[in-house]
Amino acid sequence: MTSTSSPHDGHDPPASQHRRDVPAAAGAGEGRERPADARPRNGLTSSAARAMAALALLVVVPYVHPSLRRLQLLTPLPEGEGLVVVAPPAPAASVGETALVVETTEQAELRQPEEVALPPAAAELAPAAVASEGKPPRSIEDPSGRAMAPFFRALAAVERKEPRSIARISYFGDSIVAGDWVTSTLRRRLQKRFGDAGHGFMLMANAWPGYFHNDVVRLAGPGWQVSRVVGPFAKDGLYGLGGVSFRAQGAGVFSRFATAKTGSFGRAVSRYAVDYLRHPEGGRMEIRIDGEVRETIDTQAAEAASAITTYEIPDGPHELEVRAQGPGVRAFGVWMERDTPGVVLDAIGIQGCRIRFLDKSDDAHFAEQLRARSPALTVFQYGMNESEDGELFPLDQVESTMKAVLDQVKSALPASSCLLVGPMDRADKKGEGYRSRPVIPKLSAIQRRVAGQVGCGYFDTFGAMGGPGSMGVWVQRGLGGADLAHPSGAGAEVIGRWLYLALMEAYEAWKADPARP
């Protein structure tokens, strides 16, 4: 066993001085309270009338513009049956914790099959994806000619079967990645060609009901409280690699991570790493491997500092359990790897996330977490939630905050590659037809421009789908989701295959270049 603990540099500014993009919390019951003996006379008081007018305005305004649909309190029933009042979403712009709403179970219904049967009509849109080989509809754009070189060097070492060589990918994204869609296809295809070096990073438990990972068994009991970069926010900005901080409420709270029992991938592990926080209120946690206690860790420390404890085991099927012995245990996640040449892909999905939300993390802490993981390639697939914002969040700020996050990642990982995966098309249904949201090509252009400025590769998902109007076609042919924003399972498979083909096309070109960087 090896253990590393990485405290903050004393010269780093405190978390409160780091950049923040936190909207003000919506206050409940704000304003002065009326004395108990004050009673309205002759109808409503002026303050009550103003309150009712404000309430009416809040109800009506979200219906004025489609981009505010998510704020609507009244939802129409089918075929004009009337309206039903639904609870508004809870404000996330607060500091604190929230209890997880579901336990982490196997969720077999969310598994993506290893071989996804694509609809016959998909061949007309994505013939290369259906064939699983050939030229992708879009190549990776790299004006510098050097953006992907560090990753390709890692792949080449793996392909030569150099001992302990691993090509790690940390793939950040929103709800598509949170469900391990696209990422599971890419992971499996890379591991099939280069070798399975482990599953990678996972959160301690399901931070959202739809959080899922293929080719691994994950279980967690009740009792975890969470703070997330999408809210509620951790006061200290310490979220680990995955954007979520977990705190055990008491003894017996546990999480388990085991190798897959079926399928071709994830059947073995030879190294577990537990990512957690040492801090003044820390408690004790027990580490069990295959049912036997391996170690008890006291996470109490004078100052907050992230720590990663690694456990080496014989390569094969195993299970690790993290179990709190009392309150105060604060952990981020676990990763699984093997001592065999191959590829590891961390699916780091954050539901509801925009790329700028990654900057909610304390800068020094996030950089430390990235360096500890040491990926050869970081991937960022965002845009769906930015498209929900429309232009209510100004696009110049979308661009500047995206660049700030990518600059931060590049600074932490100067010897790594990075890749932006552009947004999918998104549509609204108009009568019997579909209309793409005008913001999508703007977001795509912003991502392409920022990728070139920072020195990342860029994959044009919007163009690969067919450009404006493509989501409607995808929905009609079984590749788009009913919400006109997400792909279907088959659509996610297609995008994953496209990414694999685009990466392999660029990799083969890099290998063939005698002057390659």
How would you describe the oligomerization state of the chains in this entry? single chain
Uncertain residue segments: 1-91
Radius of gyration: 24 Å
Major β-sheet annotation: 8 strands, antiparallel
Give a count of the beta strands, DSSP E runs of length 2 or more: 22
**Helical amount among residues, as a percent range?**
25-40%
What does the average pLDDT come to?
84
Structural class: alpha+beta
Helices, by number, come to 13
Shape: globular
Percentage of residues in strands: 15-25%
Task: Describe the protein in words.
The longest helix is centred in the C-terminal third of the chain and has 24 residues. The chain is of the alpha+beta class. Helix content is 27%, strand content 24%. The relative contact order is 0.17. The N terminus is likely disordered. Strands 1, 4, 6, 8, 9, 11, 14 and 16 form an 8-stranded antiparallel beta sheet that branches. Strands 17-5-18-19-22 form a 5-stranded parallel beta sheet, with helices on both faces.
Features:
517 residues; alpha+beta; 8-stranded antiparallel β-sheet; 5-stranded parallel β-sheet; disordered N terminus
Topology:
Elements: E1 2-7, H1 46-60, E2 74-76, E3 83-85, E4 98-99, H2 122-125, H3 127-131, H4 149-159, E5 166-173, H5 175-178, H6 183-194, E6 200-203, E7 216-220, E8 224-228, E9 244-248, E10 254-259, E11 269-278, E12 284-289, E13 292-298, E14 305-316, E15 319-324, E16 330-337, E17 342-349, H7 363-373, E18 377-381, H8 384-389, H9 395-412, E19 417-421, E20 427-430, E21 433-436, H10 439-454, E22 457-459, H11 461-465, H12 470-476, H13 489-512
Parallel strand pairs: 5-17, 5-18, 18-19, 19-22
Antiparallel strand pairs: 1-14, 2-3, 4-8, 6-16, 7-10, 8-9, 9-16, 10-15, 11-14, 11-16, 12-13, 12-15, 20-21
